[in-house]
Amino acid sequence: MSTLSERSSPTLSDGAKLTIVVLISGNGSNLQAIIEAIRRQALPVTIGAVISNQAQAPGLRLARASGLTTEVVDHCQYADRAAFDQALRERVDAYRPGLVVLAGFMRILGDSFVGHFRGRMLNIHPSLLPRHAGRNTHARALRAGDTMHGASVHFVTEDLDGGPLVVQARVAVLRDDSAERLAARVLEQEHRILPLAIRWFADGRLRLGESAAILDGVQLQQPYLFSGDGEALESCP
Ligand code: GAR
Questions:
Q1: Which has the least CB within 10 A, 31, 80, 106, 194?
Q2: Does ligand 1 come within 6 angstroms of the Cβ of 187?
Q3: How many domains, in total, are found in the chain?
Q4: Are 43 and 122 in contact (CB under 8 A)?
Q5: Is 125 one of the annotated active-site residues of the chain?
Q6: Which of 36, 54, 60, 106 best tests ligand 1's pocket when mutated (most atoms within 8 Å of CB)?
């Protein structure tokens, strides 16, 4: 993959576009999906920075390799959640993002942080919310005998993993599935629905209403169900 400095267009930093800040804690495969969507001109956003609470997150290396600005706000360096949230908020605000994307960010954010970014923070979660909020979603889906599992993108509110749903992708649970195999198939879908939701937001099609997400002026009673290639991101006009 070429680095940003080697490329002229499209770039990952274009001042005319919506700026997003991506928060990660781990591998950054969802970040990679966002980067790839920008590069193929299917996502009209600029990544202002990638910020991690984990200095060793592999996703940070990936971001740097793409020429992106990265920062670490290590939660262990702060006395409590409020102090961490305050520091993180200041660093995120420094990039003046129109949207904050939680792409595998594994810290719970307090009400003050969430309130500050209300209506402009999306999260990707590896389950069909409201089923399996929290961690270990794949193992829990298997234990529960679910026949359908999947991933959800939602607006972040004070309700942990409970904010208004935007889009979901379903993944069939196979006989003799392992949590790892199921997770891999779910992740593939995450890489499709997260850039899609960001694109909707960047295009002004998606916003947070009083109690639900609003897509194309219609309040979503149910999340938009991603069904495959029909909604695949096309290049920006
Ligand atoms: C993804 O599966 C994402 O849905 C999950 O962490 C993984 C990060 O993968 N997020 C959560 O569980 C948040 N509650 P990635 O670092 O390869 O994008």
A1: 80
A2: yes
A3: 1
A4: no
A5: yes
A6: 106
